[in-house]
């Protein structure tokens, strides 16, 4: 076990998997003085912090810009009896994952999806042969060998620069180029929500993962945020515009009110901080502004298509499409095997995901259907309905999740998380050096911010 892993395990053991652990550790301290704590944002990080601090005896209130809680956890009930997640879907790696503990506490029903249950299709719709799958694996190995080599180089380069030689070699061979583009899109751009042009070769994968299966909630991920929100004072439709700190009481200005607090936890998404939608008075220190500017905020969008019946293979979860337009409709998941729902979910990430946000719903559905018809034939039915996300255009997210951009360093996430004068605290997935871009990263960051308040 290296030093980094050891320290992370120590932190997790210290936090325990439950907010109650923190509360009891701090009981004697908080009995002395109950503080007024305002939390900006009712996503997973904000709610985790709120619950821990309230249990420890503080007066907590949460200000949330939207008309709902959950933030980037957003379960849609638009289709009766089919709760669908428009934001986070999976607990990625259930073993030791704190979200598993929360799900167990409320006995939330979960279903497993498996990468092993997948089928790969050519650009023309043919299913990959075993020989072709072997070729794909070979190119994948070449990509990651080059990226690993770049990680040992003197200076950091983007992943695109790291694999430039492979792209050049594949340029004359359309099939090989399609395979290469598919790997870049599916393995990297969908995973990290960022273009290979922007991902740092050194640091793109500096995060860690829990082992075990990927599971999703039959009633949607919101069962977790609703559970955490119970009993917390949450004010919805409160768009924070300014935070005045470095004074006896912090003032949080929303569009129509000023809220006063002894301490504030800011859980704004990185994209919102980058866009400077909230003004800090005085401005944040240089180190924090630099972290905000240099870390990346990525894009991953979803398009759910609901059909009268499943016309695709029923035993698979993942349908992989080696498109001849780079990054377009590469990854699909079927809800038929796991949830018995005749629903396909197509993803588009990074440049492609961002560009498609400008398309109309009709154009997006037509583009998806064109790909599905290439694979399954012209006679497949039109969808009964669809649900489409546009996370980059969402003013309270401005992206899907953060990534380590070329020019950034993992320690910038510590700078982002660093409290200011024991008054202003920061949490949210982007502040998690170990688990950025995930629900468990957001949750643990909220607990860590609460812990810091309770320790001082
Ligand atoms: C499409 C998609 C798929 C994903 N898939 C997964 C997955 O399968 N598994 C996984 O682990 N993670 C996944 N993630 C990532 C995960 O959803 C996030 O990391 C996590 O939910 C972030 O929580 P947070 O509390 O840090 O931020 P948020 O949930 O964004 O919370 C921040 C809150 O601040 C509010 N806010 C913003 N501006 C203001 C303002 N001015 N005033 C007041 N409030 C404001 C927002 O409305 C929001 O509620 C996915 C994300 C997306 C978008």
Provide tags for this entry.
456 residues, alpha/beta, FAD/NAD(P)-binding domain, Polyamine Oxidase, Chain A, domain 2, 6-stranded mixed β-sheet, 5-stranded parallel β-sheet, 38% helix, binds flavin-adenine dinucleotide
Write structural notes for this entry.
This protein is an alpha/beta fold and 456 residues long. It has 2 domains: 3-71 and 222-297 and 411-455, 3-Layer(bba) Sandwich (FAD/NAD(P)-binding domain); 115-210 and 300-388, Alpha-Beta Complex (Polyamine Oxidase, Chain A, domain 2). Helix content is 38%, strand content 19%. The chain is built from 17 helices and 22 strands. The strands form 6 sheets. The protein has a 6-stranded mixed beta sheet with strand order 7-17-18-19-16-20. A 5-stranded parallel beta sheet has the order 9-2-1-13-22, with helices on one face. Strands 12-11-10-14 form a 4-stranded mixed beta sheet, with no helix packed on it. Strand 10 and strand 11 form a beta hairpin. Helix 4 runs parallel beside helix 10, helix 6 crosses helix 9 and helix 12 crosses helix 16 (411-417). The chain is globular. It starts with a helix and ends with a helix. Bound molecules: flavin-adenine dinucleotide (FAD). Its EC number is 1.13.12.3. Substrate binds at residue 347. Residues 44-454 form the Amine oxidase domain.
